[in-house]
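User: For my dataset I need records formatted as: sequence, then structure tokens, nothing else. Please produce one.
Assistant:
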Amino acid sequence: MRIAVLLAVLGVARAASAHQSSIKYVDITLDDAGAAVVVRVSPADVTEPLGLRPDARPTALQAAQNPRVALYVARWIAISGGGAPCMTTTPGAQPDEDGKFLVVTFHAACERAADRADFAAFFALDRRHVAIVHLVAPGAEPVDRMVRATTPVLSLELPLPPGAATRAGMRGGFSDAAFVVALLIVVVLARGRSGWTVRAFVPAVRAGALVLAAFAIGEAVGLAASALHWVALAPRLCDALVALSLIYVAGDDVVRPDARGRHAVALGFGVAHGLWLGAAAAAPGGWFGLGAGLGEVAVASLALPIVYGAARRIGADRYRRLAVLGLGLVLIALGLLGMIGALLGVAVLGR
């Protein structure tokens, strides 16, 4: 693949100047913490930070020994994830094995999965430059991409095989466990003229399924908006919305167990959860969404029989006063911790 890209470049690219190479080779390897970046350049490309004349011919060792060179090259590429810039570690530089080229390495630490590489600063030096990027992502086949001045922003999202994407989605679905429980703990209750009663099992399952369906629809909309880049919220805002959703629904469980409009609430907060999961995923798509849904169904399949059995065992009134109140307060506390984590930039509710 890289050979084919190189031949295409050689067919159209010209040297940027008499002593600079027009082609730069970049390796970007995605990981859970962000992206590791390796840039290979000719020593003649870094005469500016060395304080030399443009036509000077420094050696790769001379360039590597000057700390300004690595910083100069690292600024060419800006990595971001979920709409937020990633923090670049202090770059390093060393000659390659042949001593002819300079190898600059750095790591971009991201709050969300790294999904963009912006080469605008690189092309500001010379729009005739071309970058050949070798992109590696966990679970996906490596690819080679050509980046030109006309399209300086490179997407780092690679399609995962269906199995890997589904498993990643299931992990995301499990991270919604607290919210799914908050939606389900009161569906087993019904309020009539004689007071609170426990629904029959089938009506309880039907009520839970309708609420979860509304949540799943909203989540699918949020995932689609994230995957298509229609909406790009700041990572901390996504975390805050998810924490707020848990606080609101759990509080509603405690104060108004028979509140109407729960489907609309689940639908609206589902969109927020979809954006949250989409921002955390490297490449959200149909298989990822399927996995998220399967994960949430698994949580619901475990939670609903437990809460129903508890309600039947202790009775509707005691279940509402003790179980709903106690579990609701725990979920509210978890939501408050999530809100604090969002303010501090620390993931509390999982991603």
